[in-house]
């Protein structure tokens, strides 16, 4: 075998250490950064073909557990383990790879690439029985982990992903299955990260991470399935965050997040099923927020984070926190630029009623009636304005009392200063300006005053005004109160 017949001293050291699972550390005090490997000599250089032969064909020692544990080496060539089955743990930390490792379809017991520098990683449909570690990795090309099956956790703390060509995502985990957590706090991705269709049994930790893909999709996680929480506190994104169709059993924590995609959608979490969604404490979202058709048990939404454009059609939530006055919550409904949808107002009304704030619930219903009025014909809008001005669509009944008292006062003063003439002087009761005015105003109540006196001149015109106003007032009160009672 040519790979093993002319081993260098460094390769011989690794070859001898492998059967016993011993570690080989090539680092020196002068230079430990794998990104600056140009000064590394032959004493720190390993051929990828030698490592492949070692993993695939090297003999094992009885009573020992073989493992490849290398630190601080430069690996030349392409490490081709495509479709290989490796039962030994592999740790290649602080290493510099000249070529893109090809692990497509491979089966590994455990893989550790922490703090290494790679030009990319081809690992589609990879199987890892334990954990995959890419902590502090710097990858300068696409990482293809689509369809990977990782029984343990995937660690990517502080990893950096970039690519010269933005034609494909810098990190692909689409359709991947992770049996534990996806741990990637402070990760940096310059390009798209794809998690479409991925299934994570445990948690996702993206705290303080950055996703940078201006003008495109920064994080594509459609149909993502998470068994626990998504911690994305203080995350920073430039580009769209796509969560459409995802199912997240726990909470999506976006506290203090900065989401930016001006002129387009910054966060789309439509058609999702989420336990809790936290959008609070961060800067105002730059771009639209889309939560259409989603089901969220607890929605924590800070009005200060809401953008100018919000889409909430058919959004269902059980609780809305923190408790805010109705006026601050109504702003998010008014920013929905689509057609009038009563369901959004009913959801907000129900949320207020669950916590016993009936005053806020009535204000939401009043806002709903006013929004609906904009969709009516001109005569429907006119009738709506009358109901609004008189009784606030039945949600402000005291306004009707004010109107009634004002008209009674006007009529009483006017008729008290100048009595109308009695029809039959010898049969007419004593004139009472207050009850005469009430006779004119109230269409279903009679005090015997209206029939006994005949106004003329300006008295007659005033009586016409009071009669018409009384009918309008009575009709709007009945319509408004009926609407209010039907909502209870």
What do you see in this structure?
With 488 residues, the chain is α/β, with parallel strands linked by helices. 27% of the residues lie in helices and 26% in strands. It has 10 helices and 38 strands. It starts with a helix and ends with a helix.
Briefly, what is this?
The protein has 488 residues and is of the alpha/beta class. The protein is 27% helix and 26% strand. The strands form four sheets. It has a 20-stranded parallel β-sheet that branches. Strands 10, 11, 14, 15, 18, 19, 22, 23, 26, 29, 31, 33 and 35 form a 13-stranded parallel β-sheet that branches. A three-stranded parallel β-sheet has the order 2-4-7.
């Amino acid at each position: 075998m040519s790979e093993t017949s002319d081993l260098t001293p460094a390769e011989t050291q690794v070859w001898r250490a492998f059967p016993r699972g011993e570690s080989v550390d090539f680092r020196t005090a002068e230079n430990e950064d794998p990104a600056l490997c140009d000064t590394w000599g032959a004493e720190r250089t390993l051929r990828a073909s030698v490592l492949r032969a070692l993993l695939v064909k090297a003999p094992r020692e009885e009573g020992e557990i073989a493992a490849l544990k290398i630190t601080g080496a430069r690996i030349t060539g392409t490490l081709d383990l495509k479709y290989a089955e490796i039962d030994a743990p592999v740790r290649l930390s602080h290493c510099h790879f000249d070529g893109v490792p090809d692990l497509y379809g491979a089966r590994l017991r455990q893989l550790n690439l922490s703090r290494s520098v790679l030009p990319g990683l081809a690992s589609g449909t990879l199987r890892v029985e334990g954990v995959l570690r890419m902590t502090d990795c710097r990858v300068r090309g696409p990482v293809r982990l689509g369809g990977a099956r990782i029984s343990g956790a995937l660690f990517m703390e502080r990893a950096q992903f970039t690519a010269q060509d933005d034609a494909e995502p810098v990190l692909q985990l689409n359709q991947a299955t992770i049996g534990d957590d996806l741990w990637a706090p402070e990760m940096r991705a310059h390009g798209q990260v794809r998690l479409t269709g991925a299934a994570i049994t445990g948690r996702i930790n993206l705290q303080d991470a950055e996703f940078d893909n201006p003008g495109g999709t920064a994080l594509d996680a459609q149909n993502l399935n998470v068994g626990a929480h998504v911690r994305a506190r203080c995350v920073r994104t430039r580009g769209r965050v796509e969560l459409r169709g995802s199912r997240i059993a726990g909470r999506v924590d976006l506290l203090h997040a900065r989401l930016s995609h001006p002129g387009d959608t910054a966060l789309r979490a439509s058609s999702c099923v989420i336990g809790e969604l936290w959008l609070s404490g961060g800067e105002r979202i730059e771009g639209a927020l889309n939560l259409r058709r989603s089901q969220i048990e607890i929605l924590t939404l800070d009005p200060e984070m809401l953008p100018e454009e919000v889409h909430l059609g058919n959004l269902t939530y059980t609780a809305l926190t923190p408790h805010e006055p109705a006026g601050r919550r109504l702003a998010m409904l008014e920013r929905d630029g689509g057609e009038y949808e009563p369901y959004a107002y009913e959801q907000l009304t129900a949320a207020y009623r669950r916590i016993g704030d009936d005053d806020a619930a009535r204000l939401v219903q009043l806002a709903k009636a006013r929004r609906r009025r904009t969709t009516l014909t001109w005569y429907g809008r006119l009738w709506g304005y009358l109901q609004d001005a008189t009784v606030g669509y039945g949600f402000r009944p005291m306004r009707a009392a004010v109107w009634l008292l004002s008209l009674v006062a006007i009529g009483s003063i006017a008729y008290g200063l100048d009595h109308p003439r009695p029809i039959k002087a010898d049969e007419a009761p004593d004139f009472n300006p207050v009850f005469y005015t009430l006779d004119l105003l109230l269409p279903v109540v009679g005090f015997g005053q209206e029939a006994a006196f005949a106004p003329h001149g300006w008295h007659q015109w005033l009586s016409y005004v009071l009669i018409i106003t009384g009918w309008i007032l009575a009709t709007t009160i009945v319509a408004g109160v009926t609407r209010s009672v039907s909502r209870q």
